[in-house]
Amino acid sequence: MAEPILEVTGLVKHYPLTRGILFKKQIGAVKAVDGVDFTLGKGETLGIVGESGCGKSTVAKMLCSLERPTAGSIRFKGEDITKLSGRALKAVRRDIQMVFQDPYTSLNPRMTVGDIIGEPYDIHPEVAPKGDRRRRVQELLDVVGLNPEYVNRYPHQFSGGQRQRIGIARGLALRPAIIVADEPVSALDVSVQAQVINLLDRLQSEFDLSYVFIAHDLSIVRHISDRVGVMYLGRIVEIGREPEIYDHPTHPYTQALLSAVPVPDPEAREHRERIILTGDVPSPTNIPSGCRFRTRCWKAQERCVVEVPALAVPDVFRGMSGPAAHDSACHFAEEKQVVRAEGETQGE
Ligand SMILES: Nc1ncnc2c1ncn2[C@@H]1O[C@H](COP(=O)(O)OP(=O)(O)O)[C@@H](O)[C@H]1O
Ligand code: SF4
Ligand SMILES: [Mg+2]
């Protein structure tokens, strides 16, 4: 992996659950993020995938310093940014920008596109002097594939895909080093999703960006990600390079998610094994002991109840160099090819 730009260690966000109005008493906690570790290499794209409610947006907000972690550290270029305040905090917020999920609600309907994209310059006037802003904004519109003459239009005059381009232009305004994109295409039509992903892909090399790309579906992040982490109930349960996760998953949860990914090729679809998970995702206020996936895992055994599996190369693969030897938090990790790779036929 390239030199790390972001190193996340033991990241935790617990929201207190309180009862009472005058005398608030803490009765528990929503363990939204419960011990997340990963590294992002410079120029790399890390996909983070998991079902709704597993803590993806909370991780995103902490990376962008919009929420303070309960515990853990986030090192940006070697410096822990979780305890910064004042000027230093302001500076790092410039370097790590977020692109939000919903282009319909994240843009202020009463502001022109020019004001929306140029708003970050109000907070960081050092990036673009007042007289230069209009030109900068028009440049950004051009970069994201919109007509620079649209600068005085309002959000409702654009389609969903165009609005997400506006959101991306705004994210680029301060020339960040990292963009955290929180489900940037989930609200868009399937036909538009690929265009926005291709745009992000192009901008990455043009602006020398590193990406954390969040999605709830493994198929969306596949082609843009160098590595992918799979989240379940506040933790990453498996992480590896793109082919390791898609073609050699070893964690039962990843295997189940992959078995639900749409497969366009009817022949491959026929040979795919569907794994249907039973039961609901447990509440983040009441996380199961041992392996947090055990209440839905078809392989669970006694050991899974008592022992928390570490996110590491499982014992069975230790010392091996193949694609199955990547981090997977499972006591009984086994390689299982769920989706046949493109071009592969049966019997190969
Ligand atoms: N401010 C908050 N207060 C209490 N609980 C929260 C708060 N924000 C998020 N949560 C809870 O934390 C969990 C993770 O939420 P989130 O990070 O938004 O998940 P995701 O983005 O994966 O859907 C959910 O159970 C959610 O209800
Ligand atoms: S540790 Fe046990 S419960 Fe958890 S994923 Fe592995 S087999 Fe399933
Ligand atoms: Mg979310």
From TrEMBL:
<dbReference type="Pfam" id="PF00005">
    <property type="entry name" value="ABC_tran"/>
</dbReference>
<dbReference type="GO" id="GO:0016887">
    <property type="term" value="F:ATP hydrolysis activity"/>
</dbReference>
<dbReference type="GO" id="GO:0015833">
    <property type="term" value="P:peptide transport"/>
</dbReference>
<dbReference type="InterPro" id="IPR017871">
    <property type="entry name" value="ABC_transporter-like_CS"/>
</dbReference>
<dbReference type="InterPro" id="IPR050319">
    <property type="entry name" value="ABC_transp_ATP-bind"/>
</dbReference>
<dbReference type="InterPro" id="IPR013563">
    <property type="entry name" value="Oligopep_ABC_C"/>
</dbReference>
<dbReference type="InterPro" id="IPR003439">
    <property type="entry name" value="ABC_transporter-like_ATP-bd"/>
</dbReference>
<dbReference type="Pfam" id="PF08352">
    <property type="entry name" value="oligo_HPY"/>
</dbReference>
<dbReference type="GO" id="GO:0005524">
    <property type="term" value="F:ATP binding"/>
</dbReference>
<keyword id="KW-0067">ATP-binding</keyword>
<protein>
    <submittedName>
        <fullName>Peptide ABC transporter ATP-binding protein</fullName>
    </submittedName>
</protein>
<keyword id="KW-0547">Nucleotide-binding</keyword>
<dbReference type="GO" id="GO:0055085">
    <property type="term" value="P:transmembrane transport"/>
</dbReference>
<dbReference type="InterPro" id="IPR003593">
    <property type="entry name" value="AAA+_ATPase"/>
</dbReference>
<comment type="similarity">
    <text>Belongs to the ABC transporter superfamily.</text>
</comment>
<keyword id="KW-0813">Transport</keyword>
<dbReference type="InterPro" id="IPR027417">
    <property type="entry name" value="P-loop_NTPase"/>
</dbReference>
<feature type="domain" description="ABC transporter">
    <location>
        <begin position="6"/>
        <end position="258"/>
    </location>
</feature>
